[in-house]
Design goal:
Growth Hormone, Chain: A, globular, about 500 residues, mainly alpha, 3 domains
């Protein structure tokens, strides 16, 4: 009994550690936004080059997620998790010490690489640590709540640190978390050897998919910055298509594929990834539009705009935890559809913003509704993403759902911001004042996001209907590197 209690306590301590590291990874996507003007002055960035502080992180983070997830399955989850911690921590230190624009962009790319190694390994550890359905749903709710709060917290913390100790602490704030996690991980995370096929690593598959995904994200960034017809966008997207097609061909012929296509025959994970792609497109664009609306139309300061996201962050923390209990009562499918419908209605509500509006009348209500919908949706998608997946593929499943979120966000931001800009320009051509024209563009983007999200709700219901979210089949046993740190956790691939 005592051993069982200790194992139970250790599992929840492990979850706390893993959730905090994911919080920091997500935090770093948004924390620099408020600091950009200060960094521009300090390091002499051009206006065009400034966006690369954000883009460099997104490129390597999105481009290497799939590789990071599969590496966790093949070489050991805890080993890969700690490798990601080291890379992420070194990148954070280098960012803070950067003396030039080029150094900072390069260090941000290293940070993104560390996040891509760290994030899917952490999700995989959560999935294999909690094998009981009820406990796993609760763990996924906590994981999603903490991770979801990271994005909004980054906007607030970025302003506080920039105005306080200085912009370099926007990056150095990660270091204590990394050091603490690195010290605790060997004590409370399970450690097993990777899958038997680790010695047959699919190098060609890794190269083609990583370069292909990086090219895809770079091309989408180019669409946002230079337009869909720009040579940079067209060449990058064409190269991405060729590389990803080559990746599929390589995987079909490989005896030890980086991505076993058997995972796509599982209905729940496949549906979850498609739905995440669509949902993320709307949510990431919403964050972008509301930030601009608050600052450029309502005249908020950067810090005030960041604080405006606090209600949504708090709501997501609350309703992500509620979602795990709802899943236990009504199931993943109903929870997912409910979350998507609520999110779609929130986007429609956002579409009613006014150039003469206010935070209380135009932003707060739909933000709270989206926190409910988003909390339910994210938890349901994460649970579905690992449902029925063999334990030896859970790292890959974690990489796939994270990749879908990043790719979907990049697609949504590129396409919806282009649509919003076109609509704003069209309205301004008729003599409308700038604030009203910008607002018209944002409204158009919100309505399209609403339509996509509601279509995703219909699609999710159709794709998942009748497909049981089964527990994963038992994997083949692999010898442990050392005794498992979580007591009753299965002793297979880490």
């Amino acid at each position: 009994m005592i051993d069982n209690n200790r194992a139970h306590d250790t599992r929840w301590r492990a979850l706390a550690l893993l959730a905090v590291t994911q919080f920091v990874v997500v935090l770093d996507i948004t924390i620099v936004s408020i600091a950009l003007p200060t960094i521009k002055t300090a390091l002499g960035f051009s206006q065009e080059g400034l966006q690369w502080i954000v883009d460099a992180y997104m490129l390597t983070f999105g481009g290497f997620l799939l590789l990071g997830g599969r590496a966790a399955d093949l070489f050991g989850r805890r080993r890969v998790f700690m490798t990601g911690l080291v890379v992420f921590g070194l990148g954070s230190l280098a960012c803070g010490f950067a003396a030039s624009a080029g150094q900072l962009v390069a260090a941000r790319a290293v940070q993104g690489l560390g996040g891509a190694i760290l994030s899917p390994a952490a999700l995989s550890l959560v999935a294999v640590t909690f094998t009981n359905d009820k406990e796993r749903n609760k763990a996924m709710g906590i994981w999603s709540a903490v991770a979801g709060a990271g994005g909004a917290a980054g906007l607030v913390l970025g302003g506080v640190l920039t105005d306080g100790p200085g912009w370099r602490w926007v990056f150095w704030v990660n270091v204590p978390f990394v050091l603490g996690s690195a010290l605790l991980a060997p004590r409370i995370l399970p450690a097993w050897r990777g899958a038997a096929g680790a010695r047959h690593f699919d190098l060609l598959g890794a190269l083609t998919v990583t370069l292909g995904l990086t090219g895809l994200i770079y091309g989408l960034v180019a669409v946002e910055e230079a337009g869909v017809r720009s040579p940079r966008a067209l060449v990058s997207l064409a190269a991405a298509v060729v590389l990803l097609a080559a990746f599929v061909a390589v995987e079909r012929r490989s005896a030890y594929p980086l991505v076993p296509f058997r995972i796509f025959r599982l209905r729940a994970p496949t549906s979850a990834n498609v739905t995440m792609l669509i949902f993320a497109a709307g949510v990431i664009a919403m964050n972008f539009f509301i930030t601009l609306y608050l600052q450029q139309v309502l005249g908020y300061s950067p810090i005030a705009a960041g604080l405006a996201f606090l209600p949504m962050a708090c709501g997501q923390i609350i309703f992500s935890n509620v979602a795990s209990r709802v899943i236990g009562k009504v199931g993943v499918l109903r929870t997912l559809v409910l979350g998507l419908v609520a999110s779609g209605l929130a986007f429609i509500w956002f579409g009613r913003i006014s150039a003469t509006g206010s935070f209380l009348t135009d932003v707060l209500g739909p933000a709270v509704l989206l926190s409910i919908g988003g909390g339910f949706t994210i938890v349901a998608l994460v649970v579905a993403a690992v449902s029925g997946v063999p334990e030896e593929d859970t790292g890959l499943a974690g990489g796939l759902i994270n990749m879908s979120q990043q790719i979907g966000g990049a697609i949504g931001l590129a396409l919806l911001s282009t649509l919003a800009a076109w609509r704003a320009t069209s309205v301004a051509a008729h003599g409308t004042v700038n604030g009203a024209a910008l607002t018209a563009g944002f409204r158009a983007g919100f309505y399209v996001a609403a339509g996509l999200t509601l279509l995703a709700a219909v699609g999710a219901a159709l794709m998942l209907r009748g497909g049981a979210l089964a527990p994963p089949p038992a994997p083949a046993a692999a010898p442990p590197e050392q005794p498992a740190g979580l007591g009753s956790a299965p002793a297979t691939a880490s």
